[in-house]
Amino acid sequence: MLSKREVFDGVPEEYLSHKERYENAIRNSVVAFSLVRKMQEEGKTSINNYRDVVGGLLGSSVLRDGSPLGLHYIMFMPAILNQANEEQQEKWLPRAWNCSIIGSYAQTELGHGTFIRGLETTATYDAATKQFVLHSPTLTAYKWWPGGLGQTANYCIVVAQLYTKGQCHGIHSFIIQVRDEETHMPLPGIKIGEIGAKLGLNAVNNGFLGFDNYRIPRTNMLMKHAQVLEDGTYVKSRHSKLNYGAMVFVRVVIVFDMVNYLSKAVTIATRFSAVRRQCQLKAGETECQILDYVTQQHKLFVSIAAAHAFRITANKLWLTFNEVNEQLVEGNLQRLPELHALACCLKAVTTADTAACVERCRLACGGHGYMMSSSLPLTYGLVTAACTYEGENTVLLLQTARFLVKTYQQLDSKALTPTVAYLKTAAAERFCVGWSNTTEGIIRGFQVVAMRVIIMSTFNEEVQEMSRTVSPQLKEVLHQLVDLYCTYWALEKLSDLLLYTPISQKEVESLRLRYEETLTNLRPNAVGLVDAFDLRDEMLQSTLGSYDGRVYERLMEEAMKSPLNAEPMLQSTLGSYDGRVYERLMEEAMKSPLNAEPVNYTFHKYLKPFMQGKL
Ligand SMILES: CCCCCCCC/C=C\C/C=C/C(=O)SCCNC(=O)CCNC(=O)[C@H](O)C(C)(C)COP(=O)(O)OP(=O)(O)OC[C@H]1O[C@@H](n2cnc3c(N)ncnc32)[C@H](O)[C@@H]1OP(=O)(O)O
Ligand SMILES: Cc1cc2nc3c(=O)[nH]c(=O)nc-3n(C[C@H](O)[C@H](O)[C@H](O)COP(=O)(O)OP(=O)(O)OC[C@H]3O[C@@H](n4cnc5c(N)ncnc54)[C@H](O)[C@@H]3O)c2cc1C
Fold it and tell me: Binding site annotation covers 391?
């Protein structure tokens, strides 16, 4: 439906100013998200299953550099669902869902992003008026980053330190109106604006926000987990981290988002590599498709495998997320730490790997990959941001490490949850079981090393399962992909395997051979494999990756859209197509700065005195 809309055509965004980009993004987002509303009216989506629709839209490239409405769907609504009580949900969700209010999520401040217990914004309860007073006591307390907050949102969830009866109870969430619903003017006591140009996501309208003793009703504190009663009494949550649920949700959906971007990047680079020919193996021969070089296969094929591995893992993570949330509703908090550790780890690993793979895809396209029109630079800008937002990757990995170490310390005393059950066998097998160069052997090795084993074993199990129902030919290719993913990472993480498993030099050598053989075996199916991602040209928006392979024609067509090429290329008064030679000669002559004034000052100063013999 979207691809039929002309609204997405026009001047490429790169040539627009920062302000025009924002205006364009609002126009396009409104077209795109009005479709979500239409689908809702037609009963094709509901608030409970909109992740796919919204995720699909945001990741579709229709909104190439992000959307100022993205946070409304991805964080504002999930935060209400996760943290508001039933009454509050009834009040706010219908308005949010039909977009009669637009929201953002304001947690990070100028001074603190990672350490959220250190946030400085305060929400102090005033029992006399039954209001909270929101205040930013310092410059570093200003909210900084929230998507869509600059000029777009009129509401947002704000995370602030809660004070009641003179006591601080740590950070809590509040729903806050920041702009007038009619005029869109910032409300008194609100200082708001946009934070400026960034490496990517320049259409997202990330904002800043400060409060000057700004008052909101008591009922605007989100009270599903903790409450403040009318007299100011504080009622604790069952678990202090339940308030972090929206972040866990977004970490989970980010894994899906990475699948989108990785599939796109590798589709573009693989199709281009089939079109591009460079160098002859023997003099006089036709030049080779660059996809035939094993080094090029090494750059690309692991991304095809990783896209499948991440998709399968994302689905499993989504199931776990829903299971644990159902248990939370029943009051069972047992698996919350495991879900948190899983979401942290998978968000960090998939964003870091996707960013590295997209950059490899860009390099694999040589100079043409450097063109904005290839879509690869923009895609890199989008995925590398995900390494930082929603929890900086190192910090998230440390959270997972903390959980693993804790679990390891309790190996003998506690029953292990499914995702960490491998720790028991790994502990027992360390150095005791020999190395084996099979997929299972590599997975066992990684169980000892404990990195990426979640992704690997899930990928392997799912492909084993699929193999029962697919054709023998497809089964073979799927196994090649699992093999490639496992051998690639075994070779990348050799130092860990050498340190913690009995892998020998000979086995490393044969692993390398096996990896190269798998690349060669996959080569005939490479283009078919990326075609199978089924991404339309309108979604790829790339000069290099279109299905028809018209790479060079598209590069020239895009070049012609540069405003610098708006003037005729010939740039000749004599040779123009319309033959207006004399008119052009005169027009050009009139452009001379000497013709801008009838008499040049040198006449009076030098020439006239000289002519009159006075000089
Ligand atoms: C397909 C759709 C497209 C999606 C695209 C999305 C596009 C959107 C673009 C951008 C949006 C970006 C939004 C944002 O960035 S919002 C801001 C996000 N900010 C963060 O993520 C901050 C990161 N910091 C933290 O999460 C935390 O501060 C922390 C986890 C690093 C530490 O928290 P803290 O309160 O200091 O905890 P402690 O160190 O005291 O730990 C105590 C204990 O609790 C455990 N724990 C921490 N967090 C959780 C949790 N969420 N759930 C369960 N348990 C948790 C922690 O591990 C400790 O456990 P213990 O060892 O057993 O004691
Ligand atoms: C594009 C984008 C969109 C965003 N959107 C939003 C939004 O909508 N709403 C919102 O509230 N926020 C948003 N953010 C903010 C984002 O959540 C934070 O930037 C992120 O959580 C990282 O925090 P920080 O910037 O404070 O980094 P810092 O924590 O200052 O990190 C800097 C360095 O310090 C290291 N470090 C920090 N703490 C530790 C530690 N304990 N141990 C070891 N190393 C450590 C990190 O690993 C990193 O290398 C967005 C950010 C970006 C880039």
Answer: no
Quick check: is 388 in a domain? yes
Which of 102, 114, 206 should be mutated for ligand 2, with most atoms under 8 A from CB? 114
Residue 247 CA: which ligand is closest? Answer: 1
Q: What separation in Å is there between the alpha carbon of 249 and the centre of ligand 1? A: 10
Looking at the 3D structure of the chain, how many domains does it have?
3
Q: How far is the CA of 244 from the centre of ligand 1 (A)?
A: 6
In this predicted structure, which of 258-267, 442-451, 482-491, 600-609 has the lowest mean pLDDT? 442-451
Handedness of CA 602, 607, 612, 613 (dihedral sign): positive
The CATH code of the domain that includes 53 is 2.40.110.10
**Residue bearing the CA closest to ligand 2, atom 2:** 389
> In this predicted model, what pLDDT tens digit does every residue of 447-459 receive, in sequence order?
777 756 798 889 9
Q: 129: annotated binding-site residue? A: no
The two three-digit tokens of residue 412, written as one number: 């003998």
Rg (CA), the chain: 30
Q: CA-to-CA distance for 456 and 462, rounded, in angstroms?
A: 10
Range in 257-261, 347-351, 601-605 the model is least confident about: 601-605
Same domain, 138 and 275: no
Of the candidates 470, 502, 531, which is a domain's last residue?
A: 531
Quote the pLDDT of residue 604: 85
Determine the 3-state secondary structure of 174 from DSSP: strand
- Which residue type occupies 358? V
Residue 280's domain spans which residues? 246-531
pLDDT of amino acid 4: 64
Q: How many CA atoms lie within 13 A of 45 on its CB side?
A: 19
pTM of the model: 0.90
Nearest ligand, CA of residue 156? 2
The answer to whether ipTM exceeds 0.85 is: yes
149 inside domain? yes
Say what the pLDDT of residue 38 is: 82
